[in-house]
Design a protein that fits this description.
With about 280 residues, the chain is an alpha/beta fold. The chain contains twelve helices and seven strands. The protein has a seven-stranded mixed sheet, sandwiched between helices. The longest helix is centred in the last third of the chain and has 17 residues. The radius of gyration is 21 Å and the shape is elongated.
């Protein structure tokens, strides 16, 4: 069987399976060396499989999943990803997109640079918990309290990537309308805007706002995230009402990079952005 290509041309499916293998081993309470010994593999092979820098073969993955006693449904899903590992591009369709969230968190943890444009609300990496709760509840009115708590907790955990010593460079670009949309009420919005001002003081974070006065601009086509890595191809993450996608083809990357360039051309400079956020927060306070 032909293995899937390794770094730096590893597909999204490959990277997702690699991350899942590491997570499942840890859940099983095994070290890499222990798993290797039980299966007659070398510890270095386990490491390569879990970091996506080697080709995955169906036999190796099946053996690991059996060792970790992975449920049949999860095992079948992961093995299917391996079988289709050389297909470029990956999308999921399900309410709430929890798989997209998990993948995005994993990719953000590995990224060296993240560019996020949001047209409708404050980017997730810089949301307050109460603002995130209001956003999620507004988008999914039928969500249960436990589901809501889990999603808010996941979003807050996602933000730890910005507090690491090796945090990625983060450029958040948002439409002025997102700052003025009263999500959660005036108090929630005031605290959210104050939080943005604090976050923007970090040297690896840059905030830019596209003013309403800019009129028609490239950001009107929707929100997106561009993730760049040190040794792997860049990705674009896009989601809407019911579909989440990771795009990796060069033509898609070029298109979104051009869109970002055009959006930044219409955006206020960082200093002017801070002044606008301060003004809007003052009006709410």
């Amino acid at each position: 069987m032909r293995p899937m290509s390794g770094n730096p041309h590893t597909s999204i499916r490959s990277r997702q399976v690699a991350a899942e293998l590491r997570s499942l081993r840890e859940q099983a309470g095994l070290s890499g060396a222990e798993a290797a010994k039980l299966l007659g593999m070398s510890p270095s092979k386990i490491s390569r499989l879990e970091t996506g820098i080697t080709g995955l073969q169906i036999e190796d993955v099946a053996a690991l999943l059996g060792l970790y006693q992975v449920p049949a449904a999860t095992r079948d899903e992961l093995l299917d990803l391996v079988r289709r590992s050389e297909e470029r591009g990956w999308w999921t369709r399900q309410p709430g997109l929890p798989k997209l969230w998990r993948s995005l968190i994993d990719f953000e943890a590995k990224a060296t640079r993240v560019h996020n444009y949001e047209a409708m609300f404050v980017p997730g990496l810089v949301q307050t918990a109460e603002y995130a709760r209001a956003v999620i509840q507004g988008i999914v009115p039928a969500i249960t309290p436990s589901e809501l708590n889990n999603l808010v907790a996941a979003r807050m955990a996602r933000q730890t990537v910005l507090t690491r010593s090796d945090a990625p460079q983060f450029c958040a670009v948002l439409d002025e309308g997102a700052l003025r949309r009263p999500i959660g009420g005036p108090g929630v919005m005031h605290r959210q805007l104050q939080h943005l001002l604090v976050v923007a003081e970090q040297p690896h974070v840059m905030l830019r706002v596209v003013p309403l006065a800019a009129g028609a601009q490239a950001g009107l086509r929707g929100s997106f995230v561009i993730l760049e890595f040190a040794e792997e191809p860049a990705l674009v993450a896009v989601e809407n009402q019911s579909i989440g996608m990771f795009l990796e083809e060069e033509v898609d990357l070029a298109s979104y990079r051009l869109a970002l360039e055009n959006i930044l051309h219409a955006a206020l400079a960082p200093a002017a952005t801070m002044e606008l956020i301060t003004q809007i927060a003052a009006d709410l306070g």
